[in-house]
Amino acid sequence: MSHHLIPTYAQLPVTFRKGEGVWLWDTDNKKYLDALSGIAVCSLGHCHPKVTAAIQQQASTLVHTSNLYHIEAQEKLSDDLIRLSKMHSVFFCNSGTEANEAAIKIARLYGTQKKLKSPKIIVMENSFHGRTFGAMSATGNKKIQQGFEPLVEGFICVKYNDVNAIQQIIEQHDDVVAILVEPVQGEGGVNIPADDYLTALRQICDEHQLLLMLDEIQTGMARTGKMFAHQHNEITPDVMTLAKALGNGFPIGACIVANKASDVFSPGKHGTTFGGNPLACCVAQTVIEIMETENLAKNALTMGQTINDTLSKKLHGIDIVQNIRNKGLMIGIELSSNCQPLVQNALAKGLLINVTAEKVIRLLPPLTLTKANSDQIIDILVDIITQQNKQISL
Ligand SMILES: Cc1ncc(COP(=O)(O)O)c(C=O)c1O
Questions:
Q1: Is the shortest distance between the CB of 202 and ligand 1 below 6 Å?
Q2: Ligand 1 pocket member 228 (CB < 6 A)
Q3: How far does residue 346's CA lie from ligand 1's centre (Å)?
Q4: In the prediction, which pLDDT does 247 show?
C-alpha cells in the first residue's frame, strides 16, 4: 500500500491484476465475480476482445489531435448517439461530472438568453451528479457538500418522485429554467420513481418552457433494459448526460441536446482539450456496436427480472430484508440497518458488491451476465444476508 495517494477513498484490501468478462483476479490469483462493473462502467465485462482490439488499432493510428479540427471518430460517434436517442447534437468530454457541468452551463445560458438575472435549476434530494463545483452543488446530499461552501447558487432541491413539489416551486419562482434528474437514483440508493414520473416532468417542462435534463450517467447505455432509461417512458429529454459505460472503462462523457437546448452553445461558450478525441470516440463506437449486436438491453431486462424474482423468493421471511427492487440490471436490496460490512463478507466469498445510502446493497453487474453467473451472485448474497440476519437477531 502506498502512502503517496490522497486518501479520497476508503479502499478495500484487495488489488486486482487482470479481468476477463464478469471475472477479476487479484494479486494472489483469487477469482471474483464482479457484480459492480467498476460502478456501472464495464457493462461489456472486463477486457472485451473487440474493445481491446479497437483500443489497440486506434492507438496505433491516431490518439489525439484537437477540437480545433474535425475528428472523424467523433462525428461517427455523434451519429450513433443521435440515431439511438433521436436528439439533436452532442458535446464530448471525459467524465460524468464534466457532462453535467456542460448541462448546467447550458441551463444557465438558456436562462440568460431569456433575459433572466438568476436562472434556477430544480434538482432532487438524494441525487448524485458529480464532484466538481457545479455538479456537487446540484447534488442533493449535504454530506457530499459539507465543508465546500459557498456552493454554486441557483439550485432548488425538492423531493424525488414528487411531481407536486416541482409544481409548487414553479408557482413560487418565475426564473426556473430546468429540471435535472436521474431516471433512477443510483448513489442515492437505487430509488426507482413511479412509472409515469418522467412523463409528468416532460409535460411540466413543455408547459413552462423548461429544459428536462436527464442524468443518465448510471442508467444509460442499456443498463435498465433500454439503451437510455427514459425510453421506458417514450419521451425525449432536452439534455441528456452520459459517461460510465459509454467507454466500458475508457474515459468518455457526453452531453446530448435536443429541442430548445439545441442552439444554446455557440463557439467559445464551452470547451475541452481531451474530450472527444479519436481514441475515446473509437472505443465508444465499438461499445455501442457490441451493445446493439448482442442486444444487451434485452439481457439486462431478463437477467434483472430473474435476479429480483429469485432473490425475492429466497429471501422471503428474512427480517432484515425490507425491499428488493430493480430496473434492468440496476438492482437494490434494502436492509433494515447499515449493511456496509456485507461488502467485505461478499469479497471473502469472491463476489464484488457495493452498499449505497448505508442500507442498500447495490448490484450493477456486466450486462453480459449469464444465468449461471446470476445463480452464483444469488447464492452468495442469500448466504451473507441470512448470516447477517442471524447475527442481528442473536
Ligand atoms: C448519476 C451520476 N451522475 C454523475 C456521476 C459522476 O460521474 P463521474 O464520476 O464520471 O464524474 C455519477 C457517478 O457515479 C453518477 O452516478
A1: no
A2: no
A3: 24
A4: 98
Give which of 242, 221, 224 is closest to 232, Cα–Cα. Answer: 224
CA distances from 330 to 174, 183, 186, 250 (A): 36, 12, 8, 21
pLDDT tens column, 121-140:
999 999 999 999 999 999 99
In the numeric block, the cell 486486482 is attached to 16
DSSP 222-263: TTTSSSSGGGGTT---SEEEE-GGGGTTS--EEEEE-GGGTT
Distance 97 CA to ligand 1 centre (A): 6
Q: Which fold has domain 16-34+295-393?
A: Aspartate Aminotransferase, domain 1 (3.90.1150)
Find cell 445560458 and name the residue.
109
* Short-list 221, 283, 242, CA closest to 63: 283
How far is the C-alpha of 10 from the C-alpha of 225, rounded, in Å? 32
CATH 3.40.50.2300 fits 50-293, yes or no: no
Domain boundaries, the chain: 16-34+295-393, 50-293
How far apart, in whole angstroms, are the C-alpha atoms of residue 297 and residue 20? Answer: 20
pTM exceeding 0.85: yes
Q: What would the pLDDT profile of 160-181 be if each residue is shown by its tens digit?
A: 999 999 999 999 999 999 999 9
Do the domains 50-293 and 16-34+295-393 match in fold?
no
Residue 374: pLDDT band (50, 70, 90) is very high
Q: Round to whole Å and give the CA distance between 6 and 360.
A: 27
Does ligand 1 lie within 6 Å of residue 219's CB atom?
A: no
Strand partners, 178: 121, 211
84-115 confidence digits (pLDDT tens): 999 999 999 999 999 999 999 999 999 999 99
* Averaged pLDDT score across all residues of the chain: 97
pLDDT at 394 over 90: no
How many residues can be counted in the chain? 394
